[in-house]
C-alpha cells in the first residue's frame, strides 16, 4: 500500500525532503546485511510505499508540497532534483506569495478555504496514482502559520474527502525558547483541531532532537539541516518496510493501519512519541558494535523513565509492583505509564531478540487487555548503515510535560489578551481559543490520570 | 515572493532613501551574478524594457534590462530630489515617480499635512496606484521621513493616512527620524507630536531613529578605524561604514554615513523576505510577532557588526560578541537602554553563516540579564537568512518592542509642552486651513495615552509574577 505525504509550510517541506532522501539512500545502500532476496523485497516494498516510477527510471516521491510563499518549496524541489536519485513530481506543489505571517488564523481561515480546491486536486491526483492507498502522512510544524493553520485545515479536508483512510500527522514542536513569539497560541490551536480530524499525532520536539545532535552526534554548529536529518532517520526507522507478527512472510502491506490501530485504541489518546537507538555520528558506526539485549534494555528504560535519548537515562525509575491496586497518585514519580507500545527492530539476528520485558503489564495502564498493548515489527534488513537499530513508537506520557508546558504558556499569554487582535482580525475569536484550551486540558487530564 | 514600495518624503526621507537604493543595488549586484532578473530583485525593483523608451513594458523574467526602483519620491522643495536625479542613481527612478514643489513646508507640519496634503492628494493617489499596479503581490509600504520638519513630518503622515485608506491590506512600516534635543528647528516638538498621533493610529510598525545615536555610532567606527587598535582585522569598506565603491563622486556628505546605517536597517529587515534561509522571517511575521497590542508598535532596532572583520571563519567568541553588542546601549538606533527596561517582544534576524545552535546558545546566555513581561517570558522571534550582507560574513538585526522608548516620548512631550504653554509659534499652524487648536490637544493626548500604556507595563516589571490559574476539567 502507498502513503501519500503532504508537506506543509517551510518546516514540513524541509523535513519531507530529508525524509525522502533518507528513504532513498537507505534502499540504494549496500549495507543491507541480509540476503539478496530479502533486500530486493525491501526495496520493492519501500518504492511502492513512497515512490512512483517514471519512465526515466528516477523514482518520484508520492508527495504534495504546499506553502504560502515560494522560497522553501523552490529550494526543496531543486535540492531533490539535483540529487539525481529521486525527485518530486514537477506539478505536485502549490504555492502562494504572501506567506501566513506566523498567523494560525490566516492559515486556517483565509488560506485554507481559498486554496482548498487547488490543494485537494493535487492530493487527489497523487492518491489516484496509488494502486492501493494506505493513507496520508502530513508533515508540519505547529509554531508558524502555514504548517499549523493551513495544515489543520487540510487535515480536516483530508478527513472529509477520504473518510476511511488513515491520517497520521507528523508534528514538529518548536524549541521552548521561542522561534516564534506566538508559537504557543499556534500550537494550542493546531493540536486541538488535529485532535478532531486526525487518527494520531506523531511528535518530534526540536529541543530533544537538538540535544541528540549535540550530545550523541557530536555536531558542533548544529543547523536545522542537521536536526531535520535526525528526524528523517527516525521517521525512516518507522516507515521502512518490516514484517509484522501475523503478516506472513512478506513485508507489511498496511503500514499506517498496522501502526495506528494497535497504538490508538481510544480516541482520547492520540499522541505518539518516538525514540530510536542507537544514534551516533556516521564516522563512529564502523567502530561500534551493539547487542540486542543491551539495546532492548536501554530502550525499555528510556520508555519507563521518560528519557529523551540514550544518554542521561535515570536507571532508578522502576515500574510499580505488580498485583497491588495502584491509583495514579500512588505510582512512582517520573514513571512513564503507557497505553500501547510498538517496537521496531532492524538488522542482524532480529529473530533472536527477546522482547518479554516490554510485555510486562506493570508498564501499562490497567484498562486495556494486556495482549493488546504491545506489538513488535522486525526485519533482518539493516537500516541506514546501522547494523542494529531499535525504534519505539509509544502512546504514553512521553509528551505530557511538554504539552502541559505549552498550554500553560499559552494560557498565561491569553490571560493578558496579548496578540489576540492579530487572530480576531482573521476570524478566530476568544471563544474559539477557549474551546481549544478546553480540549487540550481534557487531553492533559486524561494522560495525567493513566 | 512579494514586493515592497518605498515612499520617501522630505529632505531627510529622500536622503536616507537615496542611500537605501544605492546599497540595495550593491547588495543585489553582489548576490546576483548571472544578471538574471529574479524574485529577490523584484521585491524592490522593476525590470523595464527601455528599448522602446521609458514607457517600456515590465519584464518579469530573463536578463536584467533596466532596473527601476519601486519608489515614490516626494518633496516640497526641489533641491534634494533634483540632486538625486542628476546623480548616478538617475536611471533607477522614473520621472513619473516624483512629486515635487518649490517652496517647501517651512518646517510646519500643518503646511505639509493640511495644505500640501490637500493639494497633492489626487496626484499622490494616482502615482501610488500606478506603482501598486506594477506589483504582482504588494505586501508592504516603507515610509521614510523625519518627524521634526514640515514635509517629511506633515506630508509624510498624510501619505500614511492615504495608504491606509487606499491599500488597507498592505502593511505600513514607517522609519521615522526623531529630532534631538538640540535640534535647530524650533518647532520640531510640535511637528513631531502632531506626526506621532498619525503614527499611533495608522502605522503597523514604526522604527524610531535618533540622529544622536547614529552620530555616536559613526564616531565610534571612525575611532576604531583610526586608532588602529583592531589593525588589520577591520576592513574599511563594509556597506555600513563607507560609500566607497558605490556610485558616488568625490566627498561624502556629512549625513551620508549616518543615513547608511538606516539604509542597512531596511536592507536587513527585508533580507529574509528576499533571500532564502533555513528559517525565513517575512515582513508580515515581524508585525505579527512584535505587536502584542495595536498601539504598541514602536520597535527599537540595533545592527551589528558595524565594521567587518577580516577573517571569514569567525570563531564562536566573535559571533557571540555580535549578539552581546546587539543588546548594548551604544548599538541601539535611538537613545535607549533596552537591557534595563521591559521587553514585550524581541526579534533576532541573523544573516550569513550562523546556525540555529549559535542562535540558541546566545539566547540562553543573554536571557537572564533581560527583563521580559510576565506574559511573554520566552518572547523571541528568530530568523536565519543564508545570504550575508556585502562585506560581512554574518550580521544581526535586533528589533525590540521595549518600554525603553518611553523616555524618548516623554522628552518629546516635555519639549512640546514648553512651547505649547506659551502658545509659541502656534499662529503659524492655526492660520493653515483645516488646522485647529483641537489638533494640538488631540495629538498631545494621544501621546500621553501612549506613554501611560508604557507606564502600566513598566509597573509590572519588578512585581510578583502571578500566573493565572488554569482551566479545571472534571475528572
TrEMBL record, chain A:
GO terms, biological process: cell projection organization; microtubule-based process
GO molecular function terms attached to this record: GTP binding; structural constituent of cytoskeleton
Record-linked Pfam families: Tubulin
Keywords: Cell projection, Cilium biogenesis/degradation, Cytoplasm, Cytoskeleton, GTP-binding, Microtubule, Nucleotide-binding, Nucleus
Cofactor(s), by name: Mg(2+)
Compartments where located: Cell projection, Cilium; Cytoplasm, Cytoskeleton, Microtubule organizing center, Centrosome, Centriole; Nucleus
Family annotation (PROSITE patterns): TUBULIN
Keyword Nucleotide-binding: yes
Domain Tubulin/FtsZ GTPase intervals: 47-246
GO CC field: centriole; cilium; cytoplasm; microtubule; nucleus
The keyword Nucleus appears for this protein: yes
Subunit composition and interactions: Dimer of alpha and beta chains. A typical microtubule is a hollow water-filled tube with an outer diameter of 25 nm and an inner diameter of 15 nM. Alpha-beta heterodimers associate head-to-tail to form protofilaments running lengthwise along the microtubule wall with the beta-tubulin subunit facing the microtubule plus end conferring a structural polarity. Microtubules usually have 13 protofilaments but different protofilament numbers can be found in some organisms and specialized cells.
Similarity comment: family membership: Belongs to the tubulin family.
Function: Acts as a positive regulator of hedgehog signaling and regulates ciliary function.
Name of the protein: Tubulin delta chain
TrEMBL record, chain B:
UniProt keywords, alphabetically: Cytoplasm, Cytoskeleton, GTP-binding, Microtubule, Nucleotide-binding
Chief place of localization: cytoplasm
UniProt-annotated location(s): Cytoplasm, Cytoskeleton, Microtubule organizing center, Centrosome
One record GO biological process: microtubule-based process
GO cellular component: centrosome; microtubule
CDD domains: epsilon_tubulin (cd02190)
Domain named Tubulin/FtsZ 2-layer sandwich: residues: 279-414
Domain of life: Eukaryota
Residue intervals of the Tubulin/FtsZ GTPase domain: 61-277
InterPro entries noted in UniProt: Epsilon_tubulin, Tub_FtsZ_C, Tubulin, Tubulin/FtsZ_2-layer-sand-dom, Tubulin/FtsZ_GTPase_sf, Tubulin_C, Tubulin_CS, Tubulin_FtsZ_GTPase
Annotated SMART domains: Tubulin, Tubulin_C
Gene3D superfamilies: Helix hairpin bin, Tubulin/FtsZ, GTPase domain
One Pfam family from the record: Tubulin_C
Named cofactor requirement(s): Mg(2+)
GO MF annotation list: GTP binding
Assembly notes: Found in a complex with TEDC1, TEDC2, TUBE1 and TUBD1. Dimer of alpha and beta chains. A typical microtubule is a hollow water-filled tube with an outer diameter of 25 nm and an inner diameter of 15 nM. Alpha-beta heterodimers associate head-to-tail to form protofilaments running lengthwise along the microtubule wall with the beta-tubulin subunit facing the microtubule plus end conferring a structural polarity. Microtubules usually have 13 protofilaments but different protofilament numbers can be found in some organisms and specialized cells.
Similarity annotation: Belongs to the tubulin family.
PANTHER family in the record: TUBULIN
Protein name as catalogued: Tubulin epsilon chain
Source species: Erythrocercus mccallii
Amino acid at each position: 500500500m502507498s502513503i501519500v505525504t503532504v508537506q506543509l509550510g517551510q518546516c514540513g517541506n524541509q523535513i519531507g525532503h530529508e525524509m525522502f532522501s533518507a528513504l532513498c539512500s537507505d534502499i540504494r545502500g549496500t549495507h543491507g546485511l541480509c540476503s539478496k532476496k530479502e533486500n530486493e523485497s525491501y526495496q520493492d516494498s519501500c518504492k511502492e510505499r513512497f515512490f512512483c516510477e517514471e519512465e526515466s527510471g528516477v523514482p518520484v516521491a508520492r508527495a504534495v508540497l504546499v506553502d504560502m510563499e515560494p522560497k522553501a518549496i523552490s529550494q526543496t524541489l531543486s535540492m531533490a532534483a539535483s540529487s539525481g536519485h529521486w525527485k518530486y513530481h514537477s506539478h505536485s506543489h502549490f504555492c502562494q506569495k504572501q506567506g501566513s505571517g506566523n498567523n494560525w488564523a490566516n492559515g486556517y481561515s483565509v488560506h485554507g478555504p481559498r486554496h482548498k480546491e487547488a490543494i485537494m486536486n493535487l492530493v487527489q491526483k497523487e492518491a489516484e496514482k496509488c494502486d492501493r492507498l494506505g493513507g496520508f502522512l502530513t508533515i508540519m510544524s505547529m509554531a508558524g502559520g502555514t504548517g499549523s493553520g493551513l495544515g489543520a485545515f487540510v487535515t480536516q479536508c483530508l478527513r472529509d474527502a477520504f473518510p476511511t483512510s488513515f491520517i497520521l500527522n507528523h508534528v514538529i514542536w518548536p524549541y521552548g525558547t521561542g522561534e516564534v513569539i506566538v508559537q504557543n497560541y499556534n500550537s494550542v490551536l493546531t493540536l486541538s483541531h488535529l485532535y478532531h480530524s486526525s487518527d494520531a499525532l506523531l511528535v518530534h520536539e526540536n529541543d530533544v532532537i537538538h540535544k541528540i545532535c549535540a550530545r550523541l552526534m557530536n555536531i558542533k554548529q548544529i543547523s536545522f539541516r542537521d536536526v531535520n536529518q535526525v528526524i528523517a532517520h527516525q521517521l525512516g526507522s518507522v516507515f521502512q518496510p518490516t514484517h509484522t507478527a501475523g503478516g506472513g512472510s512478506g513485508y507489511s502491506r498496511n503500514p499506517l493501519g498496522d501502526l495506528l490501530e494497535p497504538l490508538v485504541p481510544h480516541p482520547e489518546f492520540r499522541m505518539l512519541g518516538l525514540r530510536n537507538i542507537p544514534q551516533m555520528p556516521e564516522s563512529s558506526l564502523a567502530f561500534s558494535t551493539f547487542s540486542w539485549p543491551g539495546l532492548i534494555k536501554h530502550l525499555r528504560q528510556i520508555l519507563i523513565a521518560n528519557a529523551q535519548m540514550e544518554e542521561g537515562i535515570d536507571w532508578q525509575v522502576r515500574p510499580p509492583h505488580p498485583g497491588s491496586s495502584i491509583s495514579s497518585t500512588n505510582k512512582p514519580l517520573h514513571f512513564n505509564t503507557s497505553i500501547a507500545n510498538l517496537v521496531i527492530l532492524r538488522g542482524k539476528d532480529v529473530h533472536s531478540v527477546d522482547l518479554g520485558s516490554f510485555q510486562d503489564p506493570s508498564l501499562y495502564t490497567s484498562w486495556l487487555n494486556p495482549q493488546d498493548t504491545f506489538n513488535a515489527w522486525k526485519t533482518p534488513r539493516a537500516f541506514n548503515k546501522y547494523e542494529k537499530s531499535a525504534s519505539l513508537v509509544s502512546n504514553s506520557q512521553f509528551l505530557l510535560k511538554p504539552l502541559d508546558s505549552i498550554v500553560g504558556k499559552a494560557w498565561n499569554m491569553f490571560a493578558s489578551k496579548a496578540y489576540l487582535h492579530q487572530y480576531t482580525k482573521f476570524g478566530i475569536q476568544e471563544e474559539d481559543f477557549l474551546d481549544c484550551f478546553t480540549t487540550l486540558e481534557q487531553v492533559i487530564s486524561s494522560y495525567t490520570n493513566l | 515572493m512579494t514586493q515592497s514600495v518605498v515612499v520617501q518624503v522630505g529632505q531627510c526621507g529622500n536622503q536616507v532613501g537615496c542611500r537605501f537604493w544605492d546599497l540595495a543595488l550593491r547588495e543585489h549586484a553582489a548576490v546576483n551574478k548571472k544578471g538574471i532578473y529574479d524574485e529577490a530583485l523584484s521585491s524592490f525593483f522593476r525590470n523595464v524594457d527601455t528599448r522602446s523608451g521609458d514607457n517600456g513594458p515590465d519584464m518579469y523574467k530573463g536578463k536584467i534590462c533596466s532596473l527601476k526602483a519601486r519608489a515614490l519620491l516626494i518633496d516640497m522643495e526641489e533641491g534634494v530630489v533634483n540632486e538625486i536625479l542628476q546623480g548616478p542613481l538617475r536611471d533607477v527612478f522614473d520621472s513619473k515617480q516624483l512629486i515635487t514643489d518649490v517652496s517647501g513646508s517651512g518646517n510646519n507640519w500643518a503646511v505639509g499635512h493640511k495644505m500640501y496634503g490637500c493639494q497633492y492628494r489626487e496626484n499622490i493617489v494616482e502615482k501610488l496606484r500606478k506603482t501598486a499596479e506594477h506589483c504582482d503581490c504588494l505586501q508592504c509600504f516603507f515610509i521614510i521621513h523625519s518627524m521634526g520638519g514640515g514635509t517629511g513630518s506633515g506630508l509624510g503622515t498624510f501619505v500614511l493616512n492615504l495608504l491606509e485608506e487606499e491599500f488597507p491590506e498592505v502593511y505600513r512600516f514607517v522609519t521615522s527620524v526623531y529630532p534631538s534635543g538640540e535640534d535647530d528647528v524650533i518647532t520640531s516638538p510640535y511637528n513631531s507630536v502632531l506626526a506621532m498621533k498619525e503614527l499611533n493610529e495608522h502605522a503597523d510598525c514604526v522604527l524610531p531613529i535618533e540622529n544622536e545615536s547614529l552620530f555616536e555610532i559613526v564616531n565610534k567606527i571612525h575611532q576604531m578605524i583610526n586608532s588602529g587598535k583592531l589593525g588589520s582585522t577591520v576592513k574599511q569598506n563594509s556597506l555600513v561604514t563607507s560609500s566607497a565603491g558605490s556610485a558616488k563622486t568625490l566627498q561624502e556628505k556629512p549625513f551620508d554615513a549616518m543615513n547608511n546605517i538606516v539604509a542597512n536597517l531596511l536592507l536587513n529587515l527585508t533580507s529574509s523576505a528576499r533571500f532564502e534561509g533555513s528559517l525565513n522571517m517575512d515582513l508580515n511575521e515581524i508585525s505579527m510577532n512584535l505587536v502584542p497590542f495595536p498601539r504598541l508598535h514602536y520597535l527599537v532596532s540595533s545592527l551589528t557588526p558595524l565594521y567587518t572583520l577580516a577573517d571569514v571563519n569567525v570563531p564562536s567568541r566573535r559571533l557571540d560578541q555580535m549578539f552581546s553588542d546587539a543588546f548594548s546601549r551604544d548599538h541601539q538606533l535611538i537613545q535607549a537602554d533596552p537591557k534595563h527596561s521591559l521587553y514585550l517582544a524581541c526579534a533576532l534576524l541573523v544573516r550569513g553563516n550562523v546556525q540555529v545552535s549559535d542562535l540558541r546558545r546566545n539566547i540562553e546566555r543573554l536571557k537572564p540579564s533581560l527583563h521580559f513581561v510576565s506574559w511573554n517570558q520566552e518572547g523571541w522571534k528568530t530568523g536565519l537568512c543564508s545570504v550575508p550582507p556585502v562585506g560581512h560574513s554574518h550580521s544581526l538585526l535586533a528589533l525590540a518592542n521595549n518600554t525603553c522608548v518611553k523616555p524618548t516620548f516623554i522628552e518629546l512631550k516635555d519639549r512640546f509642552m514648553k512651547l505649547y504653554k506659551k502658545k509659541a509659534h502656534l499662529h503659524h499652524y492655526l492660520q493653515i486651513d483645516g488646522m485647529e487648536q483641537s489638533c494640538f490637544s488631540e495629538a498631545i493626548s494621544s501621546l500621553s495615552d501612549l506613554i501611560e500604556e508604557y507606564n502600566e507595563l513598566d509597573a509590572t516589571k519588578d512585581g510578583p509574577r502571578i500566573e493565572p490559574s488554569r482551566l479545571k476539567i472534571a475528572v
